[in-house]
């Protein structure tokens, strides 16, 4: 287990993988019980608990592993020893171990656990901000966006802890929405903007690493644009039709731009290289998220919020873009930093496609309400298979020496 402290990605990814596999099995159990007319005890409503755990449970821990591996290199700073990250990561993990049962048994207990999560994450944010302040690298834009998003994430974790302690589910759901769009999705967008064209140009010489900064600001702006509407509908329903058309006016061109960008960055060419195809397959879901959202909000505007595509856009974002991108990036980092080839072998490729199957099934479940139950069950089983499969394989790598004998 001492190998977990050999590099930041080992520690962060190991903790994130445990949370990923555990949360997938937990939600699969909940949905399977529901099909039998059973339900565990709940201190917080299942949708709110599910949204909190899936948005801020495993993803920040993976961000830790990536951020303190790639971040110092982006910024021209020395590598960060994993031992410096141990206590805040352990604090976050222990916090989730308290929050998780608290969601079922006692909201106050969940709030206390969430406060530990927020404390651990706040320390990690401060440490990354310290690296950023010390840097004199000419290009710090992506790191600044990530630092801002992570700071927002810390704030939302503290708000979520307070919401659980005072028993305000609306405040908890609002914090989760802000965290999803302004924290997690924004971090992933910054990483995608920096890394997708870079990896594509490196692997496919015919492509260029085209990534003008205005694209990053447009993507982040589109993500943050969703927040006031997502929060407003928690307190006011239905929203005025004019508000819905305002969403469509932004989402439709944003979706078209992102789908075009996926092609511009080499979506078709990437199909020749599995590892690259995994990354591009994740990014494509971001464009589909906005396209589905535009259709859904147009339907809501026309029907006084009575008709929509349900949670299809949300799961296109979370399972599709965030999930597939996480699998692609974590697989690449885990392979390269374990001394293995930067190529997706048959196991990695199979796990990735099980995940993509889960996304498709979940989106179909939202689009076809009459078939929601069987498709939801199939989707969660596929998600759990992919999550547990990834965790079992790569956690074994994290606790062993590199195969090439090098340190790290």
Q: Compute the number of helices.
A: 14
CATH-level-4 superfamily name: Cytochrome c oxidase-like, subunit I domain
Count of discrete domains: 1
Strand element count: 0
CATH topology: Cytochrome C Oxidase, Chain A
Q: List unreliable stretches of 5+ residues.
A: none
Largest sheet: number of strands, sense, barrel closure? none
CATH architecture field: Up-down Bundle
Backbone CA Rg = 20 Å
- Helix content range: over 70%
The succession of helices and strands, N to C, reads HHHHHHHHHHHHHH
* Straight-line distance between termini: 14 Å
Structure description:
This protein is mainly α. The chain has one domain: Up-down Bundle (Cytochrome C Oxidase, Chain A). It is 79% helix and 0% strand. It contains 14 helices and no strands. The chain has helices at residues 8-35, 46-56, 59-74, 83-105, 107-134, 141-166, 169-203, 213-235, 241-264, 267-270, 274-303, 312-336, 346-367, 372-398. The protein is globular. The mean pLDDT is 95.
Keywords:
Cytochrome C Oxidase, Chain A, 408 residues, 14 helices, mainly alpha
What are the SSEs and their pairings?
Layout: H1 8-35, H2 46-56, H3 59-74, H4 83-105, H5 107-134, H6 141-166, H7 169-203, H8 213-235, H9 241-264, H10 267-270, H11 274-303, H12 312-336, H13 346-367, H14 372-398
Brief rundown of the structure:
The protein is mainly α. It has one domain (2-398): Cytochrome C Oxidase, Chain A (Up-down Bundle).
